[in-house]
Amino acid sequence: MHAAGIVLHPQRDSAPAVEAILGWATNRGVEILGITDEIQRLRCEATPVTAAELGRRADLVVSLGGDGTMLRAMRLADGEKAPVLGVNLGKLGFLAEVDVPDLPAALSAIDSHDFSVEPRLAIDARFPGHEVTAFNDIAVVRVPGEGSARVAVHVAGQPFVSYASDAVIVATPTGSTAYSFSAGGPITSPSVEALLVTPASPHSAYNRGVVLSVHDEVDLDLLPSSGRLAVEVDGMVAGYVEPGQRVSLRGRAAAAKVVRLGMTTFYQRARRKLNLTDSAELT
User: Fold this and answer.
1) Which one of 85, 96, 251, 283 is separated from 65 by 20 to 30 angstroms, measured CA to CA?
2) CATH number of the domain enclosing 21
């Protein structure tokens, strides 16, 4: 390994984790890369680079923060060689693999090649004037005061189902435990390659979500009766679409890779994060 990149949470204290990474790197002759604006506030010895350069040069990307930081690190590593190791700072990060006390052991395991790599699906979307990528979800969401989301879902070029709702969410398995889950969508293992379409607060005749093949082309057409909708990409507004316009979505397998050390399974993380309780235990 020649270089590793660090991606920092904008507010949480990441100094202890950064010190552990720098100590590990010094002993092994590994260059540590950091995004210029992020590492300036730490005054650490990482090499300042642009976000694009970090993704291109790193052999490993270490995310220090929560799920939002992890998603940003995955976008930086999108299409590049580096897998992403998630280090949780503070709150329980669903995508993170280790907490800060476990970081030295995790880096040693990576040195020993004692880890696996888990590919993660992305969604590429196009709508007027924009091309975006999400690792959790892309949602078309009603704008307060401008009417509901009335959306026709086309699959493989054919009309499939229409929704009247507050939002229509198209999620990856990674994003199945985020907005899609809160709207009633299923928890889905990241080993499944699928797109999950879930309406939020639906008030149409058909109010169920659907699971589509990652190979299906999916288009969201805003019906003439729809309000103007915001397009949210991993929870951030990327733009707006008007009635009559289309959001085209395509799944892309193995867009990024996540480091797994075998410390927990997806199901263990889901049970902890979502506080799942067996219904039989409640009676």
Assistant:
1) 251
2) 3.40.50.10330
